[in-house]
Structures are given as structure tokens and as C-alpha cells.
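Handover notes (outgoing to incoming on-call)

Open items:
1. NUDIX domain-containing protein: sequence verified, structure written out, both below. Nothing else pending on this one.
2. Nothing else urgent.
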Amino acid sequence: MPSHYAFCPHCASPLTPRAHTGSLDVLRHSCPDAACGFVHWDNPVPVVAAVVEHEGALILARNKAWTAPFFALITGFLEKADPSPEEAVAREVKEELDLDATGVHFIGHYRFERQNQLILAFHVPATGVITLGEELAEHKRIDPARARYWPVATGLALRDWLRAQGHDPQPFDVPDKV
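NUDIX domain-containing protein C-alpha cells:
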């Protein structure tokens, strides 16, 4: 996923990288046409993630676009119309698993640089019968005491939640292509 536009979305001029110094050194992409003045700051996209707990087990899912056997947390974009990140993550759990959130508890925020995302992670206890949404290929149930985590983004959220529950989760290696 490219982290910036190649051309100005207003006038179609090629964008040029320019350093912007302030409290952080940030690379921005600017339109060279002074009359246009478009600047793409390439800010991260907010994403919500759910550590779903259902009937005492963790629910991990595999997106249809992913190669097997990789499973992960339920995630989705924080939409402009979502009243709050908490309601957004409950919406995602309903859309993807057809489960009803009985609580939403903030775990933390995590960078996912490869996708230019800021992950807002929550523990979501849920009830109901799992019915997969259109984006998911399959799901699996994992005993929290046996769960392992992937050492990036949502995997770190899972690790932090497991540790807070008194578990000692171990990492596993993730291929570079995932």
C-alpha cells in the first residue's frame, strides 16, 4: 500500500516530497503549483480492533483475502459516522461475527506502520451465535491460556490483554508477506 499520492488530487500535478520541521520531522507531499497548494500529510488511518471473548474463548478470524492459516483480531476502520471508537468496535464485532458486545474495554493504541494505521484496541466480551460476515473465511476459538501473539500491531494488543489476565503468552514468527 503506497503511503502517499503520486499526483495532486486537485490539479493532477506530480507531488513532490518536502520535509516539514516542527516538533517532529515529517515528510509531506506537496503540489508544486503555487495556485493549488495541496499538501498530503500522510497521517495514519484510525482502525479499531477487538479481542473478542465469547463463551470463555478468544475468537480469531481469517479474512478471505489472507493466505491460510493466518488468523487475527476483528478489525475495521473507524468511520466518520461512528459516534465513538467503542461503538465502532462493537459495530465491527456485530458485522463480522454477528455477536453482541456486552462490554467494550480499552486495551491500548498501537502503530501499524506497514499499513499506515493507528490501531485502537479493545477487549469485547460478546454473546450470540457466530455467523461470519462477508469478509471472513473462517474463525477459530482459542483458550486464552494457550494463545500466542504475533509481534506487531494487533498482536501486541492481544499480548497486552493476555498479560493483564495473568497469562504469559509467547510470540510466534510472522512471515514478512503477512
